[in-house]
Each structure stands twice: as C-alpha cells, then as structure tokens.
Amino acid sequence: MLFVRILAISGACLLAGCQASQQQEMTQAEALDAANAYVAREFPATNVVMSRPVLEDRNATWRVKYPPPEGYAGGGPTVEIDKRTHEVVNAFAEQ
User: Fold this and answer.
1) Could you give the CA distance from residue 52 to residue 41 in angstroms, rounded to a whole number?
2) Is residue 35 within 8 Å of residue 54, measured between CB atoms?
3) 7-19 pLDDT, tens digit each
4) Are 47 and 68 in contact (CB under 8 A)?
5) Is the terminal CB of the chain with fewer CB neighbours within 10 Å at N or C?
6) Each residue of 27-79: pLDDT tens digit?
7) What whole-number distance in Å separates Cα of residue 13 and Cα of residue 61?
C-alpha cells in the first residue's frame, strides 16, 4: 500500500514538472516586443518607436510587418517568431 502511494505521488510530481517545463504560447504583446528588439538590432534604419507594425497570426508563428523607413522605397522589415519557442524563425526586408 505504501509503494502505491509513493508511486502515485511520484507520478503526480513528474507530470507537474513536465507541464511546468513547457513554455507558454507567445502572446501578441510578447511577439511585438521580441520583433521590436530584433528589428532595432538588425534593421537600425527602422524606427521601431514611431512605426506602426502590423501583427498577423499565422497559426504557429507571429508575423510582424513594419512600414519602410522614412526615405526608403519598397517595404520595411518583416519578422516571423515561433509562438512555442519564442525564437525568430525568419526575417527579411522587401524592396
């Protein structure tokens, strides 16, 4: 009987630990913060403070599209961030 209780408690602790280790899906606000940091570092001509990016939910990723920097022709940078891993998976600037 004691063995069954220990096994049940161990199983519950293991399950709780597994659930705690999974990352939460990235929110829209977190995606915008991550994209702003990435664009500020990799595309310094883009003013992330003044620009109004468009966020698009693409199931597994967030796509954040920025307008072109002032004086530039074409499009601005676009950043895609994985919702589960919170990592930038794609970034490009349109021309």
Assistant:
1) 17
2) no
3) 445 454 444 544 5
4) no
5) N
6) 999 999 999 999 999 999 888 888 899 999 999 999 999 998 888 888 899 99
7) 31
- Strand 61-65 vs strand 54-58: parallel, antiparallel, or unpaired? antiparallel
The pair of three-digit structure tokens given for residue 35, joined into one six-digit string: 């994209």
Residue 89 exposed, middle or buried by CB count within 10 Å (0-12, 13-18, 19+):
exposed
Which helix (H) or strand (E) covers residue 71, if one does? Answer: none
Residue with tokens 């990799």: 42
Q: How much is the pLDDT for 20?
A: 45
**AA letter at 4:** V
Residue 57 contacts residue 39 (beta carbons within 8 Å) = no
Pair of tokens at residue 56: 């698009």
